[in-house]
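Listing S7. Sequence submitted for prediction.
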Amino acid sequence: MSHLFERLRDLGIRWRRGKTGSVFRQLVVSYIVFAVVSVFLLNLCMIGVLIFIGGGQLEALAPYELVDDEGNVDNFSSFERLGGWIEQLDASYQVTKVYGEKKDLIMAYTMEELTEYLMTDNLVETKNSASEYRGYLKAVCAKDKTTYYLIKIARDALKMSYTYNVGKDTKTTQVMVAAFLSFGLLFLMSCVLMSAYLSRKIRKPLQKIMSGMEQVRAGDSQVRLEFEAQREFAEIRDTFNMMIGQLDAQKRRKQEDEERKNRMLLEISHDIKTPVSTIKSSALALEDGLIKSEELPRYYQMIDQKAGRVNMLVNELFQLLKMEDKGYRLQMERTDLCELVRQICAEHYEEITGRNLDFQIQIPETPIYAELDRKEFARVIENLLGNAGKYNQTGRKVAVELQQEEGKARLSVWDDGEQIAEELRPVLFDPFVRGDSARRSSGGTGLGLAIASKIVEKHGGELRYVWRGEGNEFLIILSAGKADNIMLKILAKN
């Protein structure tokens, strides 16, 4: 049933996709609409310009429309702005009246001269003003009297054109139809070429992106997009590859976390099984009365030790899980590092010196403050100091030095013992990793450095180990956003 619902959902998605249409089709349609609208707007703008020049009427730009059949001159202002004027002539072609500003000095014409004004530009060969000005002659008959109006304007201000009525010629009509069909064919060809261009520049990258997404949906985390395209598609390609890389990294981290979890469970079962088995066997021996009276204290002491180890393991495991919980919040307070380090050093002084180690402490008198969880952060320093004293079998010195440099505090706790093995360093802060190669029940739980690392992370910092200056060094680096921009450098051995 669930499979049927998924099929119906996929069909619904495909139907909606088909209904909305593809981006490629919309781009082609948009190109056609854009071309048509552009031609329309161009013509509209040209008409608007002509209307503006004609003062609101297109007739004002037609020379023969400036004088009506009664001899009245109307709408002359637009024509006059273009540098034209009108001369009223009598029957002998003498100038009797001028409308506008006359640009030449001619006051009488012959028929031949008038003909020269009426000729087109490429046919004018004259020495009078007809070479510079064009004329439009209109005759008005009123009261048995004929009056001529010569409308003159510069030849470069107004061009003459001719309009043919193609409907009068069947052959010409056929040519015009063929021209329009040719235009339509060319327009369709341009649409096809634009479609091919969009297909190469847009559709192919989109298809590759969709194909990559389908592969990811199918569970392939190794897919990568490889194509050349414009900046926007290149950014999508790079972002896609980056996201796939991040997903792959998250998948690997998840797998590593799962392996670490399984390994931790195995380590827990191993560390608990041995002491529990000892406790159980001892309890059975005591219950059956197999233990001699003089050996009873030793058995009770052994049971107590094994129970204490199990209790310590459970407590530290609880501490580790608490630090890994994202919802757990530290109790941050403004803390004097000098005072905190002095207190911890005093608590470990007898333990370290009791191992015949030289314990050197250098702490400034001036307080150095930081925002810390005093209890949890003290656990980190105690763990590293305890390791320095416990595992320094070949050296003779443990030193603690606290100083402030350039607004940063540096706390160094180091020992001159044997360095940690190279193969242990990559997993040094994982749970149940011990500095000694043999797994002994009398050793530590292997959770100390893992807990210390998580505490430092909770403080917004990082805990690292390096071998430097013939000593074992752990670095605790707190982010610059903390109160006094603290960097703690701790040297010790696990």
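Caption to Listing S7: primary sequence and predicted structure tokens for the chain studied. Residues 436-442, 480-488 have pLDDT under 50 and may be disordered. The chain is about 50% helix and 15% strand.
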